[in-house]
Amino acid sequence: MLTVRNLCKRFGASQDARALFAGLELEVAAGEFIAITGESGSGKSTLLNLIAGLDSPDAGTIQIDGTELTRLSDGEQSAFRRTHLGFVFQAFHLLPYLSVADNVGLPLVISGGNPRERRPRVEQALADVGLAARAQSQPRELSGGEMQRVAIARALVHRPKLILADEPTGNLDPANAAQVLALLRERVDRSRTACILVTHSSSAARIAQRRYVLDSDGLHLA
Hints:
Shape: globular
Strand content: 25-35%
Number of domains: 1
CATH topology: Rossmann fold
CATH architecture: 3-Layer(aba) Sandwich
Order of helices and strands: EEEHEEHEHHHEHEHEE
Strand order of the largest sheet: 6-7-8-3-9-10
């Protein structure tokens, strides 16, 4: 599903540019759940941004589901993200003026799918994360754990090929964090969606099938 080859990202002026990482290699199969840990500043979030096409590498290639991202224009990358990728963030990023159901349905609206298919898909996505009864609630009425479950439903509702989860439990207490991670892993397994979890927490990383550490030399199996 994902193939990364010889990826390099540098920061700074050309004379003294610093390589955040170089020669990075990664393969993730459909339905596979991997975790990436590393010290603060090691480039974990930058790597996710590169895979998402939100940033450009200095060298290397990124291929998702047979499409080479580095060959796409900005507009093509945007369209690709809308249909192929799902995102789960630390800060939830729910729109406060929309209901839970409308937040979950946003990827379907943005991708321009059939309006008649939206409601049943949103209802199923919320049922899958145990929040069918909260469809008309506002985000402010939810707990942190519930908001992250909504974010997982939103990330999966359009049936993406790859989920990118950036510190999804960073704002949660340990009990809620464990529940959210277990739910994310269960939904990924059921949907056969690939998932990359970036986390500073070694305990959170244990939910994954494979675990990596990121440093300036690239990724290393933990």
